[in-house]
Structure formats: structure tokens, C-alpha cells
Write a structure and sequence with these properties.
The chain is an all-beta fold. The protein folds into two domains: 2-83, no CATH class; 89-170, no CATH class. It is built from no helices and 15 strands. The protein has a six-stranded antiparallel β-sheet, with no helix packed on it. Strands 3-4-5-6-7 form a five-stranded antiparallel β-sheet, with no helix packed on it. A two-stranded antiparallel sheet has the order 1-2. β14 and β15 form a beta hairpin. The radius of gyration is 16 Å and the shape is globular. The N and C termini lie far apart (34 Å).
């Protein structure tokens, strides 16, 4: 997994082999390191979308695996979006019904019972999910709330599994 960090002396890009399982699915998806400079290797950078580039920063993991601070990449390579992991996210189903949970949920109702594998994302940091990624046998499906009203506006499909949308349709 590649990740980029910048400080007063400039930026550097590193590559690290994932050695932590932050989402609890049994696969390593994060690199443990001392991200916040406290001298303890209790932080992590994670790649939850599987593209080989870190997209989540997690600070101060304690013994129960719950981070004190959690940030996502806003798409520009900047760790700009903070997520309150204790309160979980509000999210709306395709039927408009409001739920609380995440970041892993059974959004599409297709997951094996007891194993939620659809990922909620809150890119604007308001506590309401505005993106969701649903992994399936035929690739990834994504839903995007483009106007921030809590309703899903666009459905994205990645039929070849390369992590890039192959199609989009309005809902």
C-alpha cells in the first residue's frame, strides 16, 4: 500500500505492507505506524477501497481497536475529513429509511447473514453517509448523494473489479 505524508520539510511517498486488520474482515488492510508523533506505533493508514493507496488515517488505536480520531482522504490526497467513530454514521437506504451504523453495513441486503460488507463513507464530515461501496460477485456498486440531502442520486458500477467506475446512472 502506498501512502504520502507531508510536514514542514516537504512530502514523501512510502510503500508499506499492510499488517493490521482494521475493518475486522480477516484481511490486512492497514499499515501500523506512529502517524501523530507521540512515539507509539498506535496509529494506522488503511486502504479500504482496495486500490493500493491509503485512504483512511486512524490515530491512537487502543486495546479494543477503536480509534480516538479517524480521517478520510477527501479525494485530493489530503487527510481533510474527520469522522466521529463513536457516534457512527446516519445513513439512508434506497427506500429512504434512516439508519444508524457503520462504517460496515448491509446496505444492499445481499450480504451473508451476520457479515456486513458494504462500506459507508462520509466525505463531507457531517455525520451522514454520502457514499457507499457495495462489493458483489459481479464487481463493486457504489451510490453517491451528490447534493447532501441524504438521498442517493447516482449509482456507480465497476463490473471488471479494477476499482474504477465503468458506468453511472441517475436514481
Amino acid at each position: 500500500m502506498d501512502y504520502c505524508l507531508a510536514g514542514d520539510e516537504g512530502a514523501a511517498i512510502w510503500h508499506g505492507q499492510p499488517n493490521l486488520d482494521l475493518d475486522g474482515d480477516g484481511r490486512f488492510d492497514a499499515v501500523g505506524l506512529d502517524f501523530d508523533g507521540d512515539g507509539m506505533q498506535d496509529d494506522a493508514l488503511a486502504d479500504f477501497d482496495g486500490d493500493g493507496v491509503a485512504d483512511h488515517a486512524v490515530l491512537d488505536l487502543d486495546n479494543d481497536g477503536t480509534p480516538e480520531a479517524y480521517f478520510t482522504d477527501d479525494g485530493s490526497g489530503t487527510w481533510a475529513v474527520t469522522v466521529d467513530r463513536g457516534g457512527q454514521l446516519r445513513w439512508f437506504g434506497l427506500d429512504g429509511v434512516e439508519h444508524i451504523g457503520g462504517p460496515l453495513v448491509d446496505f444492499d441486503g445481499l450480504d451473508v447473514q451476520g457479515h456486513a460488507d458494504d462500506r459507508l463513507l462520509d466525505t463531507d464530515g457531517d455525520g451522514v453517509a454520502d457514499r457507499v461501496l457495495c462489493a458483489g460477485d459481479n464487481g463493486v456498486t457504489g451510490y453517491v448523494d451528490t447534493d447532501g440531502d441524504g438521498k442517493w442520486n447516482v449509482r456507480l458500477t465497476d463490473t471488471n473489479g479494477d476499482g474504477l467506475a465503468d458506468g453511472a446512472s441517475n436514481l
